[in-house]
Protein: Acetyltransferase
Amino acid sequence: MMQPLFGVYGASGCGRGVMPLARMQLQKLGISADSLVFIDDNPEAVNVNGHPILSYRSFLERKATERYAVLAIANSKVREQLASRCANDGVRPWTIAASNVVTMDDVNLGAGAILSPFVTLTSNIHIGQHFHANLYSYVEHDCVIGDYVTFAPGVKCNGNVVIEDHAYIGAGAVIRQGRPGRPLVIGCGAVIGMGAVVTRDVPPGVTVAGNPAKPLVRG
Ligand code: UDP
Structure:
């Protein structure tokens, strides 16, 4: 009997971290791990961690009732390109959430997210498409997060913060809370260095680091 096919797109570090979560999610639904593969455009092996790595073409050619893919690649611009490729080919976005993720009230999470173990999303939060929240990250109340935003492990995003599309927040960064009606805003494509303490708005495209976080001047 034909089955749906599920892919973790990207067979490198990010993808190998997501695969076990994807497997557990399917297990709970009673779906066999045979329906779960990696997809990679530049595979370094035919198999990794017990799953075949297929080219995107072979993923499309495998017989299946429906196809789902989670984009497990940290680079948000790549995710955006792959999302439109998948949409054109009828491959549906797949959201993966670890079983111990905590989600409170009125969390609106866009398609294709990856929520790693120990992630917490508290109340009244809006998050766009293809969000990555890596291990132990949290998003506090009343935050608005755009599309293709990436949190490395241990990001502390406090309340009333706006994070625009394609921003990247490095490991262990702390973002100070904003105020109702006057959120702290991290602009589109901004990069927050690991361990940064962000106390004020970050303009679009700017990289900041340090405590308090300041724009990085390359020497
Ligand atoms: N990749 C891909 N298609 C693309 C871009 C990247 O299949 O258009 C794959 C690439 O071959 C690699 C993975 O995605 O296996 C990205 O791995 P990398 O170690 O650069 O990043 P991470 O896993 O940390 O996101």
